[in-house]
Request: fold
Amino acid sequence: MRLTPLQQILIYVAADTSLNVSSRVFQIYCTWYFLKVEFKEESLSLVLLTVWITSTVLLPFSGVLADRFKKSWVLLTASLLIMVAASSAIGVANASSLSENHYWLPLELSVVGIIFSVGIALIFPLGTPLIPEIACTETDIHRGIRLKSSMYVVNLLFGPTLAGLVIGRYGGVAALHLSITAAALGLCLSLAFFGVFERIPVVQTIQTDTFHFFRALRDGVRRVLSIEAERAIAIASLCANMLLVPFIFLILPAKILSHGLTMLDLAGVEIAVGVGIFAASSILVHQLQRVLTEHGIASLGVCVLGASIFAFAYVDNLWLLRLLALALGIGLTTFNVTVNTKRAVSIPAGYRSTMESTLLFFCTITVPVGLWLSKSFLQVCSPNQVIVYGSALFSLAIATVVLSRSLRLMLNAPKALVPYYAQTNGSLF
Reply:
C-alpha cells in the first residue's frame, strides 16, 4: 500500500519516539536502583557515563552508515538492538533479585546501556536527513521536522514521568517491562516503516571497504568545519548546550527544590516547557514565517531561549517560572525547526546523515563539561548565580546566530533545484 509522505513521516516519528522512550525508561530505572536501593551514586555515574560515551563516540560513524545504507534498514537495525537491550535489562534485573551478591550488577547494566546506546546512536542522526528523502517539497519537509521536534517533549518528559509513576506504584522491574513494551512497539513501527518507505535515489558517497569508510568519516568532519554556515551552527550549539542541558536536568531542579517547592511543582514547570514546544512546532513557527525571514525567526528563537533562561535567575514565583518555561520551549523549538529545515534542503542528498551526525557530535561533546561545571558551581554558588554566569556563555551563541552573515545567507536562500551548499561549496561535494 502506497502511503503519503506525511503518513510515512508519522510512522517514522512514532518508531523513533518509542525507541527513545524505551532507552530513557532504562536510564530512570538505573537512577532509581542505584540511588534508592543500593545507595551507590558512583555506580550510577559509571552506567550513565558509559551510555553517554558510547552514543557520542558512535555518532559520526552512524552518520556514515546512514548515508551508505537504506535508512529504513538502519532504523530497523537500531530497533532490534534496543529490543535486545530491553530484554537483557529484564534478565539482568531478575537474575540480580535471585542473588545476594550484586557486585557485577553495575558492569552488567553498563553492557546493557552500551547496547541501548548503539541503537540510539544509529537513530539519533536520522531525522533531518530522512525526512527530505520522504517529502519532496520544502513545505512538507518543514511540516515533518516540526512534527519530529514536537516529539522531543515526549522523549524528554513522558518517558521519565511514566517510568517514575510505574516505579512508585509497581516497583523497579515494572519500569523495565515498560521499557521492553516501548521497544516492541518501536520494532513493530520500524517494520511497518521498512515496508512502506520509498527511498528517493541519492548519491552514493561511501564504498564498502574500510579505507573509504574512514575517508567518508573524515570528509564529513571537513565539510562541517569548512562550510561557514555549518561552523556557525556548531559554535552556537556548542555554547548553548553547555548551559541549556545542565539547566534543564540540574540547575532548574536545584533552583525549584531549594526554594521549598515540590517535585510536583518541578513537573509542572517541565510540562510548561513541553507546552511551549508543542505550541511553537504546531502554530507559532508557521505564523512567524508570514512576517519574518528564516534568519529572523532563528534569531528570535535563540534570543527568546537565552532571555528566558537568564530571567529564571530573578524569578521565584511558581506561575512566572511556568511562563518562563513556556517561553523556553517556544524559543528552543523555533530555532531548531527553522535551522534544521533549511539545513535539510541545503545539504545535497547522500551527504546529510554524515554531516548531521558530525554536527551532533560537536554539539553534544561539551555537555559533560557543562554538567561538571554546573555541579561544581552549585557547591559554592546558588542556582541563580550559576544561571547568570552561564548566560554569559550563552550570549556567545546568540551573537553567533544573529551576527553570522554566512548563516543568514543560508537561512534566507531562496528555493532552488540545486542545494545551497552545492552552489556555495561545490568542491566539497
